[in-house]
Write a structure and sequence with these properties.
Number of strands: 18
Strand order of the largest sheet: 8-9-11-18-16
Shape: globular
Order of helices and strands: EEEEEHEHHEEHEHEHEEEEEEEE
Helix content: 10-25%
Length: about 325
């Protein structure tokens, strides 16, 4: 069901934005040690025609560059200029982490574990509180872009709560290669949206400190499909065709390294593998040991650890065990 909440004036951070207005608001969250202001640009595009408000974010984790690239392309290609309604883009939420390519806030906290935040808490908690109370309330729909952490490369996928039928339907419209049914984590942005009744699609693709063209394309095309469904994509854009439906995943687990050593990946991300198929080898640096890593079952490989060296017990492949037909 499409929410048609009409907002003649959009109020964000003390700014009243009328229909047909384009504006960039600088969200002042704190200062560096040098007293230099740290500001987050919030890019607002409003059509003259009323309609839903879509909030598109990335960079909750400062080292997840691929998500930032998705939102950058949406702005650069002017996809964020809606045929109706409003589109708000925030390419980098965690500017502190982005500056240092760090996942966390300067206080050592994961921003995506402190939502909805507190007014007088830590820096990350204060930021989450301001975001939730001053920006999030105007949104009817949210799309948030992430990557895998560390060296773990995620196949492009959408994560949604299986209990929310509207979200599952929206995920099918976004049509990423995979859709992962997963519960909301306490303290996450996604969980806060759920509690406020705001539908949010969380996109995962690629790995931290890396930018992948194919992953970014999946993210941008998915946004275009959602905007088209909402009647917000301008007719000047050709809707990307994708005849293959998203593969819906109900369960998956990690295949872990049985030996420490140098990891040599043999299969591409997203591949469907058969039980016993060779996925990788683990060797020592001296040419004495070579261990073959095989698939434990039939399934899709949706996450690969691309670290060149692993320890015994490290997660190296995430493989699906149950799909939704």
């Amino acid at each position: 069901m499409i929410k048609e909440i009409q907002k003649d004036v959009l109020s964000i951070l003390g700014h009243d934005i009328p229909l047909g207005k384009s504006i960039t608001i600088n969200f002042n969250i704190a200062k560096l040690y040098t007293s230099t202001k740290v500001e987050i640009p919030i890019i607002v595009e409003r059509s003259k025609k009323p309609g839903p408000t879509v909030l598109i974010t990335a960079g909750i984790h400062g080292d997840e560059i691929n998500g930032v690239e998705v939102v950058r392309q949406i702005i650069a290609k002017k996809i964020n200029k809606p045929a109706k309604g409003s589109i708000i883009c925030i390419p980098v939420l965690n500017v502190f982490g982005f500056l240092s390519l760090d996942r966390f806030f300067p206080d050592g906290r994961d921003l995506n574990r402190v939502f909805p935040g507190t007014k007088n808490g830590s820096l990350a908690s204060r930021f989450a509180y301001q975001f939730v109370n001053q920006i999030l309330p105007v949104a009817d729909y949210c799309m948030d872009f992430h990557t895998g952490g560390s060296s773990r490369f995620n196949a492009p996928h959408i994560r949604v709560d299986p209990k929310n039928e509207d979200l599952v339907a929206l995920a099918k419209i976004f049509n990423a290669p995979f859709t992962l049914l997963s519960k909301n984590l306490d303290g996450s942005y996604r969980s806060t949206c759920a509690k406020k009744g705001i539908n949010i699609l969380l996109f995962e693709g690629g790995k931290s400190q890396d930018s992948n063209r194919d992953v970014a394309k999946e993210g941008v095309f998915g946004v275009m499909r959602i905007l088209n469904y909402l009647g917000m994509l301008k007719t000047t854009f050709d809707l990307p065709d994708k005849p293959v439906d998203s593969i819906i995943i109900n369960k998956s687990f990690w295949i872990r390294a049985k030996y420490s050593g140098m990891l040599h990946i043999k299969i591409p991300i997203g591949k469907h593998v058969e039980k016993g198929e060779v996925l990788a080898t683990i060797t020592d640096p001296y040419g004495k040991m070579r261990h073959v890593v095989k698939a434990t079952n039939n399934g899709y490989i949706i996450n690969v650890n691309e670290a060149p060296i692993v320890y015994k017990g490290d997660a190296i492949f995430r493989i699906t065990t149950e799909l939704v037909s």
